[in-house]
Predict the structure.
Amino acid sequence: MNNLPLLDLFTRLREAGLPLGVGEYELALEALQGGYGVTSRDALARLCRTLWVKSPEDDRIFTHHFDQTIGPAVLPVAKADKLAPIADSKMAVAVGRMDSIAQNPTSLGQPTDAPVEPSKIPIAILVGTVALCVTALSLVTLTFLQSRPPVTVGRSAPPNPPTRISEPLLPPQKPIPRKNSPTTPKPWLKLVPPIVPEPVKPKTPLPSPFLALLGQPNTWGVLGAVAFLAGFSQMKRRANRLQQSASQTVPPIAHPPKPPTLAPSSELLREIEDEVQAARVARGATDGGKGEFFPVTRRQMKQSWRHLRRPVREGRATELDVEATVNQIGRQGMLLDPVLVPPRVNRLELLLLIDQDGSMIPFHALSERLIRTATQEGRLGHFSIYYFRNCPTLNLYRDRHCRDAEPLQTVLETLQNTRTVVLVISDAGAARGVFNPDRLRMTRQFVAQLQRHARYIAWLNPVPRSRWSSTKSGFHSTTAGQIAELVPMFEVTRAGLDSAIDVLRGRYHKLHGETS
Amino acid sequence: MGQGLEAKVVVDAFTNPALSHASVSDTPNNSAKQPLEYIGRKQPKPRETDRSGQLRSPYLPSPELVEAVNLAIYLERPLLLKGEPGCGKTQLPRAVAYELGLPWESWYVKSTSRAQDGLYTYDAVGRLRDAQLAASGQLTAEERQRMADPATYIRWGALGRAFRNDRRTVVLIDEIDKADIDFPNDLLLELDEQRFFIQEVEVDHPLREVRAKVTPIVFITSNDEKDLPDAFLRRCLFHHVQFPDRHQLINIINAHFTSSAQELPQNLVQAAVHRFMELRQDMDAAGNMGKKVSTSELLDWVRVLHRHPLDDALAKLEGKLPYAGVLLKNWDDHVRYLQQK
């Protein structure tokens, strides 16, 4: 039972933050056994979508990963008939494992031993070429890699994840098969499906003893990547020797033209990357540090905002208060009329103050996301946003470009001080990491002013805690560290956001540097 | 895979009501095992009404939707339907129940709904009243007897009725996102384990625990006003109902107008759908995040146009948008439309 179908796809989706559990995976197996999703690639995609995807955003993540694990999506019309067998066989390899589980084997079950049709040959030869490269070059390059790494292979191999290779491999390149077709031995054609970098481990016994050598699952991806790049550079060299202009055709190999309808746009990919990265950060995995800094996903933010409520019974009395009614009957000796109470509504009012200073520029997207999730999810009695630079002194601004000013005192006076809570999002000077007595004085004044008008105040600092939390007591390390002694300050992580919201709900929080 | 064969049997069962009735009543407890397959082709006859006297309307689902429905029936999981307003989310369960010949229950969630309302409500006030009447000796012996039975004061909700029904029941939980955020989570146990407890009756009473006799087919719709909790999403299948395309819209209009006295001229339908799709695209292009024109409005619009002679109606469609009030409900849309032309 090692080779479960679609397990790789499922794991990837889980890692990308989709809400999936073992039960959902079993559900997919059950559906496959029931004969759903086995007729075509699209049917499989539809099945997985119905079972595992719960929102349009998740759908984009799903499409991305599905294309990577099962093979690229619908092909251009001209090439469709040529490429369809490969995509289908890949799918069949992924789905085919269910034969071991399913009682009734499907017609798609045995793709690996299927005879090669004439239409498959160009691709088969292409993959066969890679097979050759694997046989010849993987051994050579691997031994040469340690002593004298060639520039092209040694530099570019590690950062490429092995799964990416499956994409460039598929569209056939004309010069390659023509050049290598006489040298490719026929028996290699049989190896086509296992050679395609397939995330699901092939269960069928490997037909060649050589492949058995290469059959280690962990070395597969690395070998595939190295072999492809080695073969790729080899071909590039050969092509260069033959004709100078041939080198111009190289980029299309690395980035094959994708069908415009299904290829994810660059914007889309960015979003997917963002989601994946945020999920990784949330899971504590390290990341290269590229892209935006999003330690909390949208979903998590919404979940946190949900806790921010302060239900108050208000409005028309419509709910029956059973306890009070029973008490009243006890007193009066009979039921005269039931006691009704007003339903609970959330009357919490949130004032969000956002720093738009230069040092906060990297975190603008983060504060935007906090605003958007709060508007969407928090069912607050009242929700207002104001912007400021560095520290609010006289004015707050209604727009994020700090043009539309409103006096701070006016804003504060309109607050209902019994039910208003304030969340400040600012680095408090931590991005610069210095101590600025002026800023501290201004902030102290502002916080004192705020405390008179708001019930609870919390501060979110997008800069990591280690940058501002001072360990040496009594020593003025950073401005932010000092401010954290005035207001409960948290870094922007899941735990930090939750703690900040707890403070706004009235939980006591020990201030930074406070003893006892 | 034998699916085709089963499907054929099911179709036969429905073309022959006597057969369908027999097959259902023969194996009331076994009907979960009985393969149910939704085809989406059976449409009500013109002027056919349901039990409550509501006119039945035809429903033309997309093949993907049919597949999702069958998956939900097969896996016995609730199917969560999302999609823009007017794409037919709420109509689907009724159509499924009609085609499969199953009883159906609907539960329209309101902002004040609690999860328990769908299972049962306990008429505590009624019991109190009866107790007082009994104390003052105003109840007959028969009424006293009735009072002793705790089941008297239980009012079953949609899910409660479905659980107690011997036949597999189609349940619609409409607009689940309207209720409180805890609402979906409160339903988890009931949807997962197909049982619930009635807290008001004695612990050892047979009514204390209600178990589903047959797993109901549950449809849940959401307009995405609020995000649903992950734990709830995990247990549901999900399908995003796409707005019908041009071809489907024409079919839908034709299906709805088969009952009307005069035949609907096809060139009018074509022209109206064309104009309608244009309007939708304009709304898209304008980055309109509000309500887009939907199928029901299109039907009304065609109905109005149909009152005119054909050439008159076609001429109207060529010019300024006729009867814009039927389609454009938003003042901003109206202004934008006027500015464009």
